[in-house]
Every structure is written in C-alpha cells, then in structure tokens.
Specification:
The structure holds 2 protein chains of 2 kinds.
Chain A: H1 3-18, E1 25-28, H2 35-44, H3 49-64, E2 89-91, H4 107-116, H5 118-124, E3 128-133, E4 136-139, H6 144-148, E5 152-155, H7 156-162, H8 164-170, H9 182-190, E6 195-199, E7 209-214, E8 221-222, E9 225-230, E10 235-243, E11 251-253, E12 256-261, E13 266-274, E14 279-282, E15 284-289, E16 294-301, E17 306-309, E18 312-315, E19 321-330, E20 335-344, E21 350-359, E22 364-373, E23 380-390, E24 396-405, E25 410-420, H10 423-430, H11 436-452, H12 457-471
Parallel strand pairs in A: 3-7, 6-9, 7-10, 8-11, 9-12, 10-13, 11-14, 12-15, 13-16, 14-17, 15-18, 16-19, 17-20, 18-20, 19-21, 20-22, 21-23, 22-24, 23-25
Antiparallel strand pairs in A: 1-2, 3-4, 5-6
Chain B: H1 11-20, H2 25-37, E1 48-49, E2 52-53, H3 62-65, E3 73-78, E4 85-88, H4 89-103, H5 114-122, E5 127-131, E6 136-146, E7 150-159, E8 164-173, E9 182-192, E10 197-205, E11 210-220, E12 225-232, E13 237-246, E14 252-261, E15 266-275, E16 281-290, E17 295-304, E18 311-321, E19 327-336, E20 341-350, H6 354-361, H7 367-383, H8 389-403
Parallel strand pairs in B: 5-7, 6-8, 7-9, 8-10, 9-11, 10-12, 11-13, 12-14, 13-15, 14-16, 15-17, 16-18, 17-19, 18-20
Antiparallel strand pairs in B: 1-2, 3-6, 4-5
Helix pairs in contact in B: 1-2, 2-5, 6-7, 7-8
The chains are: A alpha/beta, B alpha/beta.
C-alpha cells in the first residue's frame, strides 16, 4: 500500500470523528449544581410540579452520597469536579420539542449529522431516528405505520408533558431510583433529553429504533434519560450510539436507561459508544423483566477516559431471561471498567454474559460483574464467559466477577481467559501476504465477531470502523 | 473503622508471654511492635457487593474470645527423617535462633492485618520445620489439640536449596471443658529456597463453637514449588487465606482447598497467587459442599505482574449444594499486567446431578446412599492431590462422617 493511500485512509477515518462546530445556544445554565440550577432546568422545560420535586429530592441524595472510592481497582474519578459542569444547553432552534422534517433544522446542525450519516441510515433501514444534539432532541421522526399501532417514540422532555401518567409511574421509581448510586442521583437531578419508547401489547417493531447522542461543547455534561416500556407480548430493538470530539477539559456523561420488559415481551438494547478520550462515562442502565420476558444488552465501549458501565437486569418473573454481550477496547490512557449485573429473583430464570476485551498501549480493561440468585429462584441457570486479549506489556486486563447463590437447585458457571495475540497466528497470516498491522486487525476482528454478528449491519460496520481506527499506528 | 481495643491486653501481658519462654530480645520486640500495631491495623478485607457484606468479621467479640495467658494445647510432632528439624517453636529458638530470626516475618508481615498482629503478639504454640540442603523427607506431621478459650499458633518452614518435604498440620478441639466460644489463630510462613519442593497440608476440624483465622503464606525462589492443601471441616466461622508469591523464575504453586459445611457454618476461603517472575505456574483448585444453612464465600486472585513473562495461571472453584437453604458466593479474579500470559479461571455452583442419581437408583441403590456416593466422588479430584496418605484418609473420613 502506497504512503499516499495511507495518508488518505487516515484522513478519511480521522475526519469522521474529529470535527466540531462553533457553539451556539439559546440557553445555557451557569456552571455548578444548585437548587436554583435544577429549578431553572425544570422551568425551561415547562415540566409538571412532580418532576421538579423529584429532581430536588435527587439533588439532595446526590449531595449526601459520597463519591465511590473503595471499589477494588476502580477507575480514578478524582478529576471530576461537578462545579465545572454545565448541565444544560438547549440548541438554538425555533421548533420546541423537535423538528418534524430534516429541512427545519438549522444548517449547521444538519451538517453535523450529515457527517455522521444519520439521514442515509434512516432512509435505508431504520424505523426512526432521535438524534440528541446537546441536551435536547432536535429531530424526531417515526414511520407512520408504527404510529398507527400506538408505538410511541419521542424525546423524553416531550414525553413528560404528553404522556405524563405513564412516565410519572415509571420514571426513576422502581427500576433506577436516584438512591441507587451517586451518579444516578446526579442524573435524576439534572437529566435532560433522551428517548421515550412505548410499545403496546402484542406489537412487534420489526426494524430497530435508533437514537444517536452527541456532545459538542467543552465542559458540558450529558445526562440523557431513556425509558423503554415494552408491554406484554411486544418486541422492540433500540440502538443507542454515542460519540464526541476531543477537548482538553473533561466531559462527564451520566446517562440513565430504564427498560420495563413485560410478560413474554422481548427487548434488545444495543450500544456502540465512542466518547472522546477526555470523557468520563458513568452510566446506570437497568431492566426489569416480568414473567417470560427476555432482555438483551449488547454494548461496545470504545472511547472515554474512564467508563464505569454495568447494564443490569432484574429477572422478576418466572422464566424471564437476560443476555449480555459486551466488548471493551482500551487504548492509551483509557480505563474501561464494564460488566453486567443480573438478579435472578424468580424460578426458571436464565442469564448469559459474554464479555470480550482488548487492551493496548497501556490501556486497562476490567470486567466487573455480579450474578445474584435469590432464595426460591429454583431451576435457574447462569453462564458467564470473559475473554481478554492484551497487545503489549504496558496494558492491563483485569477480571472481577462476583456470584451470590442462595438457592441450591441452580446451575452457575463462570469462566474467564486472558491471553495474547499468538505469534503463530501472526506468522501464518504473514505467510499469506498480510502485513503485521493487517494480520493483527484481522485477528481482533475475529475475536469480536460473536458480538458484531448480533448488531445490525450499520452498527457492525461502524464498530469495525472504530476498531480499524483504534488499530492504526499500533505498531508504528 | 478501627477494630475494638482489647482492654485486658497490655505490654505486661506480652512481656510475660515472652519471659515465660525465655525468648530472645528480637522476638520480644517483634511481639511488642505487633501489639502496638493493633491500634491502627484493619481486619482482613471482606468483599462488599451492593447492599451486602460477605462475611461479618466486625461481629467477633475479641474482648471475650482472647484469653492470652491461659492458652493450652497438646501437640504431637513426628519427623519422617532424622535429617529434618521438627520442633516446637519455642524450643527451636535455642538451637536455631539465627535461622528463625533471619526468616521470621520475611514472608508474612506481622502487621499484615489486625488478626496477624494479634497472633504474633500473643502466640504460644507452633512449629519450626527446617529442611537442610538436598534433603528429601516425607510425612512430617503436626497434630494439635486446642484446650483453651483462645490459641495462637506460629509455624515457620524453611526449605533449603533442592530440598523436599511434605507436611501435614492438623488442629481439633481437645477434651478439656471450655464454656462458650473459642478462637484459634494459625499463621504459617513457608520459605522455599532454590529448587525446593514443599507440600503443606492443613486440616481444621475444631468444634462448632470455634472461630478460626488462618493465614498461610509462601515465597518461592527460582524453580521452587509450594503446594498447599487447605481442608476446613470445623468451626462456626472460618476465615482462611492461602497465598503464594512466585518470586523465582520457573517456580510453581498449587493451592487445593476443600470444605464441607453443615448446620450454620460459615467458610470464608481465599486463595491468592502473585506471579512476579518469568515462567511461573499456578493452579488453584477448590471444591466445597454445603448442607443445611451453611454458607461459603470464596475469593481467588491470580495477579500477574509486569515482569512476569510467560505466565501460566489457572483457577477452578466448584461448590455443591445439598440444601435449598445453603448459600454460596464466589469471586475469582484475574489481574493481568503482562500480556505474555495464559490465564483462566472458572467457577460453578450446582446440586447433585439428577441423571446421576437416577442411574444409581436404577441399580437398586437407595436415594440417600446414591447421593452420598456422588458427594464422595465430588471430592476425588482434590483427594488425588494429597500426597500424604494419612491426610487423605482423614479427609475422606470427615466427608463420610458429615454424610451420615
């Protein structure tokens, strides 16, 4: 491959993720977090009183809880200074609650999403796109036939007003209460934007629903909330993607995801995250699965300076099931601490966790997971498998699972392996004409194939593209 | 959180223990330093998951349990060969004081935690095993009976270059009447010289009014091997830590653990290896059975350091639950800092296999007998690792006894 082609290739892949737009907003809250900040956010969104009350209570809880400091091997969070965060920026657009067509958006916002390929993806395959630019959904669309079936897909701010009763019942109550952890409390106080998805009984949404988040301003936080309610016998696949350009100051992403999987319903939640290397990514994601409900979490964590992300499912009803597939990729200066949590609270519940991690250039990956089988959850089974690949001696790969088994009639299995890219594998591929870089890239792509197979084509393509980007220069 | 002070404990107590044994100044000072360390030392780490602490060591009432001046035990020691030194710790000081001073605390820091500091300050029993260069000895046995409210034991094993030794150490409750609960503490240090080979087996079968704390540590030199066999059958609460630092190139360690819990026994069993040098190998194997409302908690750590090239590290932990009301928690951990590593771990929890039961019952074996056969079979992989015949028989007998 010629050097000119190399340069062109690098330009193409780098350019995709490194651009930024000049900041322009209609409203920007002051830095720091006070009751006044919370009131201003709530008033600007024209929220009902009960939501303001919840925000204020969450703020109190946030202020009371200590920062996590004593988890074994946890990422370093000392750089996070809440007073430096700007929690709320609303973009300058005329249409509140999101535009109904692409042309209504300001030109520079259209340009941002053009580069990310959102419109083409929507036209080709997707049911609807909710793109979050700064703190508010600016573009909402849902194909008409799903609206006719009663499927709701709108931004969370709008849902609070238009679907108040159902949101009030489900929003940060049973699934992820603000008391769960410090960053859930922070999220509860200053959440903004995100998606609301409601799927009526026995309704199947055949094509994935996609939301794409983006952070563009230095020092701003990102606190989107996703609430998915899948009623009895329904089926839906939701895709969340994240990316942010590089800035020198840190960014904080503290999102919340709540999924209610009704009886015999099926929800798949897929994520590819590529926050910039100065982002702290501290999410709380949880599902509650009723009888026969089926939850699937699929996630790729590629970016961020530090990630703490452990999608969790409570298997509440008999025969509910939970599957996790995760991939973590840590390069220079990154600490990706991810895993899964499953609570088997009923008989005949099943879970599987498959985790793959790759560490290079001094990055660190850690799998942290908890499987809890409650007393009475007989005939449950769980299988956890963790595999880690390390490129060099500066990198670190840790595995820290926890299992708590209170019931004897169960099958519990956990296994983990750590290894290096085999010299024999490299040699074989090189003997077939591949150079060192390409050989390693091929091995890594094979390593993560069980996960990319589960993703829609667009996301598998993007994940492979991100791997390609991360792999470049690894042997320079 | 600071651990409760034991008001009845003082420098005078420690001096008296040292004086009664005519101990050298360095050991007396070590005891006093350990005593002073109690003010700041922490209890051993316990795993915390959301809303739940796996073992409650804070609940131990040391004021009631610790009775340092009335320690009593009967210990019988046998050496399989007259070239090996097997002596009560106190007696060994007279003849081997220099070796003991050089090695004591080199592997196990007296101030490692609150419980080690307490034990070093107060120990009155224990064993010194010394294997000279090139000597190969089997069947060293140390059989102890505890006859007091509390007992603190210190064992030091020094295996010189190219020596080989197998050791069995056991503890059970003696005949003396002691009202209320008891506390037994056992610290074991193994110094394995170049190309030395040590198998250290331990069998704990104290009565169920007992609390047991055990920390056994080894450091391996080049090409050395230390294999542990840790069997816990007794005590109401057992906290056991088995640790090996693989400091020498080409050194190896195997840690085999077994436990069988009945009634409301609680076992907190931990196995840890640190790979610090090139071409080291570790294999951790733990098998446990739980019946009634017994509970087990397990942490296994495989830590591969930056300089640990060409590491092989494996871990398997299996628990069999005979009762719906038993509870098993496990946390196997891999901490990898060198990519030139093959490492794996696995953990399973389950019950007696229904198909196996059905097969045996179809051969006219009654249900109870069939289950018992399967449980005995479950232990076979660890029994096979025990080189000391006497030890293997003891473990088998205890398993059978608990199945009646």
């Amino acid at each position: 491959m010629s050097s000119q082609q190399d340069d062109l290739k690098e330009t193409d892949t780098e350019a995709r993720f490194e651009f930024k737009k000049e900041e322009k907003s209609a409203f920007k809250s002051e830095k720091g977090l006070t009751e006044e900040t919370v009131r201003v956010i709530s008033e600007d969104k024209d929220e009902p009183e009960w939501m303001l009350e919840r925000r204020l209570r969450a703020l109190e809880q946030f202020q009371e809880m200590p920062m996590p400091t004593d988890w074994p091997g946890q990422p370093d969070l000392s750089e996070i200074d809440i007073d430096e965060i700007v929690p709320y920026i609303r973009p300058d657009i005329d249409v509140r609650g999101g535009a109904e067509s692409w042309e209504d958006l300001p030109e520079e916002i259209q340009d941002t999403f053009d580069k990310l390929g959102i419109p083409e993806a929507e036209k080709n395959a997707l049911s609807g796109v909710g793109a979050q630019y700064e703190s508010e959904i600016v573009y909402q669309n849902m194909q008409e036939r799903w609206e006719e079936k009663g499927v709701i897909f709108c931004d969370m701010d709008k849902a609070v007003r238009d679907h108040e009763e159902i949101v009030r019942e489900h929003f940060m109550t049973k699934c992820v209460p603000p008391s769960d952890n410090k960053f859930a409390a922070l999220h509860g106080a200053i959440w903004s934007g995100g998606s609301f998805v409601y799927v009526p009984e026995n309704t199947t949404v055949e094509m994935p629903i996609q939301a794409y988040f983006r952070m563009n301003s230095e020092g701003m936080g990102q606190f989107e909330h996703t609430l998915i309610i899948a009623e009895e016998g329904s089926e839906v696949h939701y895709i969340e993607g994240c990316s942010a350009p590089k800035y020198s100051a840190f960014n904080l992403h503290s999102g919340g995801v709540e999924v209610f999987v009704g009886e015999d319903a099926h929800v798949q939640y897929s994520t590819v995250q590529n926050w910039s290397k100065n982002t702290y990514n501290l999410n709380t994601k949880r599902a509650i699965a009723e009888k026969g409900g089926r939850m699937e979490w699929i996630s790729g964590s590629m970016g961020s300076k530090a990630t703490m992300l452990y999608p969790s499912t409570i298997l509440k009803g008999r025969g509910a099931s939970d599957n996790h597939i995760t991939i973590a990729f840590a390069g220079e200066g990154q600490d990706i601490d991810t895993g899964a949590k499953v609570y088997h609270n009923a008989p005949e519940t099943k879970s599987t966790v498959e985790s793959k991690s790759i560490a290079k250039d001094g990055g660190r990956t850690n799998y942290r997971g908890l499987v809890h089988i409650a007393d009475g959850a007989e005939n449950s089974s769980t299988a956890v498998e963790c595999d880690a690949l390390m490129f060099d001696n500066e990198s670190t790969s840790d595995t820290m699972p926890y299992m708590e088994i209170n019931e004897s009639k169960v099958d519990v299995a956990h296994e983990a392996t750590v290894g290096k890219i085999g010299d024999e594998d490299i040699f074989y591929l090189q003997s077939r004409g591949l150079d060192d870089d390409d050989a390693k890239q091929m091995i890594v792509s094979g390593f993560i194939e069980p996960i990319t197979e589960e993703l829609p084509i667009e996301y598998a393509v993007e994940l492979n593209r991100l791997v390609e980007l991360e792999m470049e220069g690894s042997l320079g | 959180m600071s651990t409760q002070a034991i008001e009845s404990l003082s420098e005078d107590t420690v001096r008296r223990i040292a004086d009664e044994r005519d101990e050298p100044e360095w050991l007396r000072q070590t005891r006093l330093d350990a005593l002073a360390a109690l003010e700041t030392a922490e209890l051993p780490d316990v795993i915390q998951t959301p809303g739940r602490r796996w073992t409650d060591l804070e609940a131990l009432d040391f004021e009631a349990l610790v009775d340092p001046l009335n320690q009593a035990d009967e210990t019988e020691r046998t050496a399989g060969d007259d070239e090996v030194v097997v002596l009560p710790f106190t007696e060994a000081l007279a003849e081997y004081g220099d070796v003991i001073e050089a090695n004591f605390g080199s592997v196990l820091d007296p101030e490692h935690n609150y419980l080690t500091a307490l034990s070093v300050a107060l120990f009155t029993t224990g064993t010194f095993v010394y294997v000279p260069e090139g000597v190969d000895v089997e069947d060293v046995t140390v059989r102890a009976e505890m006859n007091s409210r509390s007992l603190f034991s210190q064992t030091l094993v020094v295996a010189e270059e190219s020596s080989s030794v197998t050791i069995l150490e056991s503890i059970k409750t003696g005949e003396s009447e002691v009202a209320d609960d008891r506390y037994f503490s056992n610290l074991v240090e193994v110094v394995a010289g170049e190309n030395a080979n040590v198998q250290f087996g331990s069998l704990q079968n104290l009565d169920t009014d007992s609390y047991t704390y055990s920390l056994k540590r080894a450091v391996t030199d080049t090409y050395a091997t230390v294999d542990w066999i840790e069997s816990n059958f007794g005590s109401k609460l057992t906290r056991s830590d088995i640790e090996t630092e693989l400091d020498g190139d080409g050194s190896e360690s195997q840690i085999v653990g077994t436990f069988f819990g009945t009634d409301d026994q609680h076992f907190d069993i931990n196995a840890r290896v640190w790979h610090q040098a090139e071409q080291t190998t570790a294999d951790l194997v733990t098998r446990g059975v739980l019946d009634d409302v017994a509970r087990s908690v397990y942490e296994g750590v495989q830590d591969v350091g930056e300089d640990a090239w060409n590491t092989s590290s494996y871990q398997r932990e299996n628990t069999l639950m005979l009762s719906d009301d038993a509870e098993a928690d496990a946390s196997p951990k891999l901490i990898i800092h060198n990519h030139d590593t093959e490492a794996s771990h696995s953990a399973t929890v389950g019950q007696v296999d229904a198909e196996d039961l059905f097969y045996l019952e179809s051969r006219s074996i009654d249900s109870r007998t069939a289950r018992n056969m399967l449980v005995e079979g479950f232990f076979v992989p660890v029994l096979e690792e025990i080189a000391v015949d006497e030890f293997r028989d003891d473990v088998e007998d205890l398993v059978v006894e608990r199945l009646q």
